[in-house]
Amino acid sequence: MQQKEEFIKIIKANEGIIYKVTRAYTNDTDDQKDLYQEIVYQLWKSFETFKGLSKISTWMYRVALNTSILHLNKKKRRPDRVSDFELPQIVDDSSTYLEDQVSELYDQIKQLSIVERGIILLYLEGKSYNEIAAVTGFSTTNIGTRLGRIKQKLRTNIKNQ
Amino acid sequence: MELEEMKALWDTMSEKVEKQQIVTDQLIMEMTQQKYKNKFSKLLMYERLGAVVCIVAGLLLLFNIQKLDTWYLMACGIFTIGFLLVLPFVSLGAIRGMTKLKVSKYNFKETVVRFEKAKNKTLFIQRVSIVLSLILMFTSLPVFSKIFNDKDFFLQEHGIGFWIFVTAVGIGVLFFTRWAYGCYNRITSSAERILKEMDE
Lengths: 161, 200
Fold this sequence. Notes:
The structure holds two protein chains of two kinds. Chain A is an all-alpha fold. Chain A contains seven helices and no strands. The longest helix of chain A is centred in the N-terminal third of the chain and has 24 residues, at about 1-25. By secondary structure, chain B is mainly alpha-helical. Chain B has seven helices and no strands. Chain B is elongated and about 80 Å long. The model of chain B has no long low-confidence stretch (mean pLDDT about 80).
């Protein structure tokens, strides 16, 4: 019971991570909710083996990104969802366009490959090259090279729009 | 949007998201339940059911193999039985390889590589299955005809209706095979592109 309480506490404290990853790997709200609950399920399954061997956020990103990759192939196997839930609204008191800007941001991220999406997500989250390397398995030098390529790709995409 | 702008917007969004509660304690508990996983495995259940049907049919033919009294009927029988008994295991094994990937065991890079390789393997088996199913369509007819009706399909007279039916099915299967090959090539080239990207 104590383990479940601890798990709930961790999920609630870090649910933003799951939200941000799921939005980058899905195209509609329903699919995002399916992926969201799948990630929570996978986190629970690996919670016992996690035992604080790495930082909570590193473990969560690893499970969330890996689950998203596998989910890309499961879209047609939509599971029945548990009780429905609402995804957060990104609104700002000073600007009603924030959600539009965020949508545009995600549109740009979704133009990248599945691997690049994972790397840019971690970069935007403010993770160091070492942390990105720990989650993804690439070397820190390789992360630098890949981020350079991603920047170039984003610029080209903007020019082509 | 430049990367720096993206970063600033991302931080604003993160701040907003973190202030909102997405799921309740109750919902988290529901999401951890095993019943949810079982619903995902429904497709695998149907595939297992198909495998059982194949194996039962294969065993039925195997127990009656002595009724195939010519070399060509025996050849058709061996192929049909082999197909029905072996392919379900190969196919289920490949699907299992894809669905049993442990998301917490490997890092992102390893997961992508393992998943794409497993996907390629499954697609290859599916491609082989399609070709073998085509052959099965023609080998199973004489086998079932001999075992259950005691008639040699190759020595029987067949009316024009039968040949029209066989030709129509043949053309249909040909189009299906071409379409399936197209799909296969698209998916494998996408998988290969991803694998290549991992090595860059």
